[in-house]
Amino acid sequence: MKKIFLGLALSAIVTFQACQSADKKSSTMKDSVAGDTTMVNGNHVVGAESTETSLDDDGNTFLKKAAVGGIMEVEAAKIALKNAKSADVKSFAQQMLTDHTKSNTELKELAIAKKVITPDALPAEDQIHLDEMKKMTGSNFDKHYVDMMITDHEKTVKLFELGKQNKDSDLKKWASNTLTIIEGHTAKAKELASVIK
């Protein structure tokens, strides 16, 4: 009986020590992982170097502004597809949705590669603007949307002209390629404005 009791006691002690040892290990591992893991654009990047971007301040700012602009174009296009009266405006909105969804994906990939955290949502004032647009329909919506596209794309052209001058070759190439598309959007929006007056 003593042997059984002694065996159980010894077994309990070994089990208790093993549990404590495992707790210490998992605690240590948890701390080291938490210390080395950073989220960049929704992806885990391991290592302290993950927060050091290879872009200068201008490149960093460019990507962040371009991200917000791209999100705005996609969300406004979705509203236009529902609320526009003109088939031409709806067709233009579909082109905006297609082109800007593609460029937003490319921007996100570039930002991840350069370790730049870009916004995934719009600033409050832009979201308020979109919420107001959702209440508009017909010809009033068409005029508002097309005027907005002209204004937004003219500003975006200036932004991308700056991006095209950045010293980072990847950013410069993407900005140049995307600028050509944006200039096409600007011209098309101006054509539409003359038709839907």
In a nutshell, what does this entry contain?
InterPro entries: DUF4142 (IPR025419), Ferritin-like (IPR012347). With 197 residues, the chain is mainly alpha-helical.
**Number of helix segments?**
6
Distance from first to last alpha carbon: 101 Å
Please, what is the CATH homologous superfamily? Ferritin, core subunit, four-helix bundle
The CATH architecture designation is Up-down Bundle
Protein name: DUF4142 domain-containing protein
Pfam family, one: DUF4142
Keywords: Signal
Please give a structural write-up:
This protein has 197 residues and is mostly helical. The protein has a single domain (54-195), classed as Ferritin (Up-down Bundle). 77% of the residues lie in helices and 4% in strands. The protein contains six helices and two strands. A two-stranded antiparallel sheet has the order 1-2. Helix 2 (57-83) packs antiparallel against helix 5 (138-163). It is elongated and about 50 Å long. It starts with a helix and ends with a helix. Residues 1-50 have low confidence and may be disordered.
Give structural attributes.
197 residues, Ferritin, 6 helices, mainly alpha, two-stranded antiparallel sheet, disordered N terminus, single chain
Topology:
Layout: H1 2-36, E1 37-40, E2 43-46, H2 57-83, H3 87-113, H4 124-133, H5 138-163, H6 169-195
Antiparallel strand pairs: 1-2
Helix pairs in contact: 2-3, 2-4, 2-5, 3-6, 5-6
